[in-house]
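User: What would this chain look like folded?
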Amino acid sequence: VPFRASRQKTHETNLIDRLQACAALDIDQLVVKQTFKAKTKMEGKTVIITGANSGIGKETARDLAKRGAKIIMACRNLETADAVKDEIVKESGNGNMVVKKLDLGSQKSIRKFAAEILKDEQKIDVLIHNAGMALAFRGQTSEDGIELTMATNHYGPFLLTHLLIDLIKKSVPARIVIVASELYRLASVNLDNLNPIGSFPAAYLYYVSKFANIYFARELAKRLENTGITVNFLHPGMIDSGIWRNVPFPLNLPMMAITKGFFKKPKAGAQTTIYLATSQEVANISGKYFVDCKEATLNRMAMDDDKAKKLWEESVKMVKLTPEDPKI
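Assistant: Here's the prediction, encoded as structure tokens.
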């Protein structure tokens, strides 16, 4: 009993620390203000968007479909995705949209999806890692034995990128866009516990996974330098996208404190993703972080190249890459 009481006290102290850190964040960096207005056309381009059936992903798919791109909607919920596809096709007049099953929390699903893409598609011009999830107090474990938030938000995109990289290389110039978050500033990546099963509260792991996204993006950009593939990552703004629907009081306080009076609709949240996927301004820029369609700064911890490299090496083990899998 004393051990449990001490552990609970630690959790409460950590939560208070996170709330205090949240209050110190720069609201201007969290709120989306710009709309990307350039009319860049995307005819002949093939774009994969994970989590394209709702929120920011849906609005990204809508915009890029209107620009003429072929959209591959990589989604877990096929029923919702099919309905969204029909909606966008009707609105945009672009029937070149495909829905495919992808559960980023399942390595089996990722490998099946990638195999279908490699069989059916001739190229990938843009890969957008948009899908994300957040849990509440109690975490869950994926079928691969990995904490589910980390499996979905970090390890899934890491594996998918590897499996598709050869086709992306054949499609150059190509782009990889990763949706991270300014909320990374509330977390750190513990290299001694990269499979944090049982962590409490589980919602904190969303912040950790967004930090991991940044390490992944920066290391990926270094490894793909001079290949014709750019890698950039972004904070979409604090968006009313539904990702926090499962997070109860008091873990939702950081988001409520920041977004009270500043909530943006998913269309606004999609603007920086669209900018990085289409703008000629960033055609030759790679490894950078963007907020509000502008390059932004990272904190010192996020710039730690050694930690990013170590996370990469451990992620290779976590997703069980084989000698036959593509290397980056």
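Residues 145 and 195 are 9 Å apart (CA to CA). If you want, I can go into more detail on any region.
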